[in-house]
Design goal:
Six copies of one chain form a homohexamer.
Chain A: H1 8-25, H2 29-41, H3 49-62, H4 66-78, H5 83-97, H6 102-118
Helix pairs in contact in A: 3-4, 3-5, 4-6, 5-6
Chain lengths: 123, 123, 123, 123, 123, 123
């Protein structure tokens, strides 16, 4: 399937990237070190990078943050998780976090659909 | 290493088990179905059971529930995760959830030590 | 008062319904069972259905989820609660949850106004 | 059934009462007004007092605060709710808040048992 | 720098003000008293008003409420805090609350930019 | 007033210190960097160290973590805040976070009393 140029997810990626630049441009040492630490968290360690992206996704879902969910969904898709595996991870978040997670599950399913249309997620 | 008979974790297991019995004895259909659903969540599916225990652990850590952390630490140890892998998962929870997670990290490290002494966790 | 065709709430209802369909179409047994369990929670039991909708509303308000608030506001209106009773329930959420709940209270009041205009809520 | 003198709940009531006294003795106008506002929240209004205690219980359960749960359980028992009704309310909290609520459900069931033994809750 | 008439922040101020009016018009005594109590919280007391606005900002950031963040950012700017001081406060929120706070940090930086353009925040 | 040797707070300090040592001994680079980042957060920057301890206190209170509250109460006392100032900060947390914060306020007042008896907090 060919790439789609304009969608909600693409807009989010651009805004996220620009805003992160602005944050780093503040030149606050603590914030810059936090951002660096955050990136390194999801690299291969005792656990492989892909497992840690899945952990980041579930943490984001139970803490109910759509932007964080979108970011980790994309990373999970890129590291090769299938839609079924991602949905099975989201089910853990649903059971741990309860029905209050459902609106974020609806958001996640919509994002997964965009990732499929883009070809980022294997369908 | 030989089994330790009396420890905080063993006490928690017994109280947890007895209290869960009492909850099921209430005979509330919704609660009984939730407990059943909860158990089934961590069985092999699109994702293997052990990965889902790790997801449950990180979800519990960012939501900051020591009882849930202890339960999933034990399950993670029993499904074969090493201490280093579990600590790497807890690091994801620390970065996503922030320093407010640290007291729960302290609790988790203590539990891991008991699990090592018991022989449940490979050291 | 006659029905209003186009409003934010009507849009939410449609999107919510479509997204829930997509979630059920994923055919994940755990998720389908959770959705079923969720629906049954608000049926008559030891407590009447309407009281449980009010409980769902306050739980949604202190957990600060606008979509959940909108859903339960509608259910509360349909089961016959008056605006004054619903506002009195929201006050409990405000006191328990604090000023961080205020933006959600503003959202809820706007939704109540739409429900009044639609005739769903007795004014 | 005769009153039990010494139990965890009785100890909590005394400590809670003494600590609340100390807080009021700080003579901070804002805090004193908040405490006054809090008490008034659960008095008869558009909704009857007992319904609001039940709302307070569910709010406390999804926000996962054992002290608040114990306080509202006692109030719910005193205003005449039966064990079955209280458990049905806790089920709403369980479904909205997810399995992370379960340790607090275990705590609540234990408290209900003490309230039954004391005769505060009709069994 | 001259005032900008139309921006996201200005729209938020108007909607917030109108919705707060509607809430007070509900004439619920508890809610009116809460709003009054809330306003008084940020007046000079043992701590000066500006320090308390900064506390309100960090509380809003770790509880992840963009509307509350915007409100307190404006108050902090008006009471004379510099951008660097506000960013240093937000860093505390980031470290305490973790990476889940980052999307709200992005929002806050955008708001600070508007406040600078308006001349509310000294740049 | 002379120092008290044995109290709940002293026990907490020792356990906290020992557990933090164990965490650092895990030798997980990410965790060690997080702990380092956390310490640096509360050093003089655009805002003075003492203001940031007060921010840390309020963040801990609205996120309802007693261990974090105790740690920051001690730091606030040591950096010279008076009891009245600390209580005024806690009032901000109470209003933002709601009555669910009250049990933590009770805990905080007890800790302040110990800090006074120890002479750490000026009374």
């Amino acid at each position: 399937m060919s790439k789609i140029e304009n969608n909600r997810l693409e807009e989010f990626r651009q805004e996220r990237s620009e805003a992160n630049e602005k944050i780093l441009d503040l030149d606050h040492l603590g914030i810059k070190r936090f951002f660096n630490l955050d990136s390194n968290t999801y690299k291969d360690g005792a656990l492989p990078a892909d497992t840690k992206e899945l952990l980041g996704l579930v943490a984001s879902a139970v803490l109910r943050c759509n932007d964080c969910i979108d970011y980790h969904l994309e990373q999970c898709a890129e590291t090769g998780y299938s839609k079924d595996e991602i949905v099975d991870a989201l089910n853990v978040a649903l059971v741990v976090g309860g029905s209050i997670v459902i609106p974020h599950l609806r958001h996640a399913i919509d994002t997964l659909e965009i990732l499929e249309q883009e070809g980022t997620l294997d369908s």
